[in-house]
Amino acid sequence: MTLTVGVLALQGGVAEHVKLLETLGVNTLLVKKPEELQRCDALVLPGGESTTIDRLTRIFGLRQPLIDAIGAGLPTLGTCAGLILLAKNLEGTAADQQTLGLLDVTVARNAFGSQIDSAEAELAWCQQETPLRAAFIRAPAITRTGPEVEVLATYRKKIVGVQEGKLLGISFHPELTGDTTVHRRLLELTTA
Ligand code: GLN
């Protein structure tokens, strides 16, 4: 049966993920309502502005349903602001910013400063021989990892890719360069 991958569609780079996922032969679903989560075999939390996405999850009544669905084992990939949303703890956060608190990491927002404001880069990914090509846009970095968290990628000596169980969190945007490595790993988690 064809997999259905939801993309949280409240704000941010939704269309780019949909386009990339379609090249992998899955069905995609724009998730704006709690009941849509039930139809997903996997989920992508896209990049954008994490404070805005946080606020919109609360306004759209999606905050608790997301916590429930992802907490129950829905394979989920958070990219950039999506990683921020998944994290247990944030550094330097806006006063009322909340996260879903599911991925046992601490994330520092905008950790690469202005020189990497909008850069494309190649980075090593797990044991893979070919580097991954991705864009960094006001990228966060992971500054603490819990005991169950596996580091998948570093860049400029900072952690930028992790996995904990069925959760993947990355600081960068492979969907902007068309690199399918991380999304393929997400699909693998549906059968793991
Ligand atoms: N810096 C943004 C934030 O804090 C994230 C940027 C991105 O998703 N590309 O939300």
Explain what the structure shows.
- This protein is α/β, with parallel strands linked by helices.
- The chain has helices spanning 14-23, 50-59, 63-71, 81-86, 181-188, and strands at 4-8, 27-31, 42-45, 76-79, 87-91, 103-108, 118-123, 132-137, 141-145, 150-155, 158-164, 167-170.
- The chain has a single domain, classed as 3-Layer(aba) Sandwich (Rossmann fold), CATH 3.40.50.880.
- It has five helices and twelve strands.
- The strands form three sheets. It has a seven-stranded mixed sheet with strand order 2-1-3-4-12-11-10. It has a three-stranded mixed sheet with strand order 5-6-9. Strands 7-8 form a two-stranded antiparallel ribbon.
- The radius of gyration is 15 Å and the shape is globular.
- The model has no long low-confidence stretch (mean pLDDT 94).
- It binds glutamine.
- Glutamine binds at residues 47-50, 80-81, 84, 109-110, 137-138.
Write the layout of secondary structure elements.
Blueprint lengths: L3 E5 L5 H10 L3 E5 L10 E4 L4 H10 L3 H9 L4 E4 L1 H6 E5 L11 E6 L9 E6 L8 E6 L3 E5 L4 E6 L2 E7 L2 E4 L10 H8 L4
This protein binds glutamine.
The site of glutamine has 11 residues, from helix 4.
Record keyword descriptors for this entry:
Rossmann fold; three-stranded mixed sheet; binds glutamine; seven-stranded mixed sheet; 192 residues; 12 strands; 22% helix; alpha/beta
- Helix share bin: 10-25%
Low-confidence stretches: none
Number of beta-strand segments: 12
* Average pLDDT over all residues: 94
Radius of gyration: 15 Å
- Find the structural class using helix and strand composition: alpha/beta
Task: Characterize the overall form.
Answer: globular
Main β-sheet, in a few words?
Answer: 7 strands, mixed
| Spatial order of the strands forming the largest sheet | 2-1-3-4-12-11-10
Name the hetero compounds present: glutamine
Number of helices: 5
CATH architecture: 3-Layer(aba) Sandwich
Q: Approximately what portion of the residues adopt beta-strand conformation? A: 25-35%
N to C succession of SSEs: EHEEHHEHEEEEEEEEH
CATH level-1 class? Alpha Beta
Distance between the termini: 16 Å
